[in-house]
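re the bet — no i am not wrong, look at it urself. input seq straight from the record:
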Amino acid sequence: MNNASGIVVEFPPSEEPKDVTPLVASKLDELHLQLVANSTEIPKTVLGLEEKYQEENKKIEDKTVRAENITESLVDSLPNPTGWRLLVLPFTPKDKTKGGIIISQESLDKLRIATNCGYVLKIGPLAYNDKERYPTGPWCKKGDWVIFARYAGSRLPIEGGEVRLLNDDEVLGTIKNPEDVLHHI
């Protein structure tokens, strides 16, 4: 018997019902439940803009030099501090807040210039050698996060950011995590 929905349902001639719509509907419901039960994939709503945004994010490479992505070869290519100086990589905050707001590159550059935290990359040969001035020993070592005055040191631009040359006595303290210090935008 042909139905309006285009589904062919065949019954033995003696059992052919007059109205097949409820039977077809129940059979479709049964098939749908079987498909859902056998399917392990949950349907996902895909938004066109979200997909495009994710593609754009994959294309953009973050070339900002940060302490977590610095390599020995990059450190070797940087200038060696002479005398009592330290080579420090200023702290660069994340470019996206916890709430998902993207911080502009201009704001990040201002933060990098005005930062008072940095990662020690190299130490000059005479740094902290004066026993009268530093009786307790060095104030920091390579790989420490240090705190210094806001505009201290000489700024040297490098690809992906900048480094600073600080005098050994410009270090005000050390810190374990630079994100523990509030950085104003």
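see?? Strands lie at 85-90, 117-123, 145-148, 154-158, 161-167, 171-175. told u. also The longest strand covers residues 117-123. so pay up
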